[in-house]
Amino acid sequence: MVLHAGPSPKADEIRMNPNVNVSVHDSKGYLSISGTASITKDEAKIEELWKTSAAAWFEAGREDPSIALIKVDSDTAEYWASDEPRVASMFKIAKSAVTGDTPNIGRNDVVDL
User: Which residues fall within 8 angstroms of residue 6, CB to CB, at 6 or more apart?
Assistant: First the structure.
């Protein structure tokens, strides 16, 4: 994520408490990563990740001196994955609400990194 390194709410939050969780989702499942965040001004990485759409938030565009990145050093990751159609998963969840059973809707694991 590209952000203002100076006085920005997100940078201030990270400086006060660097413990973070990053989660992503797609049609096949979820991924949750826990770790420690820091603010970096790595010019090569900023150049690699820069998208023109980010320019709307920076007056001087890519050359704005306040541009920085959030770097996350990961500790653990947990994933949930399902190979069956979403409708089948939703049916199992609804059925478990009636029966009180825990639905089996895919794989889940925690990985120490």
Answer: 66
Question: Rounded distance, CA 75 to CA 108, Å?
Answer: 17
CB count in 10 Å sphere of residue 12: 11
Residue 97 in tokens: 């609400």
Q: Quickly tell me which residue has 């409708």 as its tokens.
A: 87
pTM for the whole structure:
0.71
The per-residue pLDDT for 61 is 86
Give 83 or 60, the one with higher predicted confidence: 60
CA gap 69, 82 in Å, rounded? 32
103 vs 85: CA distance, rounded Å: 14
**Amino acid sitting at position 65:** P
Question: How far apart, in whole angstroms, are the C-alpha atoms of residue 103 and residue 30?
Answer: 16
